[in-house]
Amino acid sequence: MINNLIASLNYENIYLIANWGVIPIWILLIIIPNHSIVNFLTQSIIIPLLLASAYIFVGYNIFLEGNILSSFELYNGLNGLYSMFSNEAFLLIFWLHFLSISLFIGSWIVRDANKYMIPRIIVILSLVSTYFSGPVGLLIYWFFRIFFAKKISFND
Length: 156
Known about the structure:
156 residues
């Protein structure tokens, strides 16, 4: 049974499970951000643990293939990054990284917005932008946050 499970964990399936798996969390963050279930899912270790497990699994497969040093190509310039992303495993590991960080930022936005009573429309705009473009959504949120928090702080 475990062999069947491991055999079905190819890169395409990991991508689909991770990609579709975070969408309900994002929808819940947008629709009912203060619900206890949403707080549990976004503030517990469950989602990061699942994404990290997939990350470790893919990283282990990269190690087994002997391509672990290929990851340093990204420091050789844009062509090195392009070359690295032509490998499915490296592309997937970076996508898992992006999903994890974006979800972390989204849950932080919701908690911070509650703290400063920022209107939901701004939070929704920031969450949708964060889901699709990561740092741009955070920048949008931070811009509006200045007016509601009445301070500029780079270390909150």
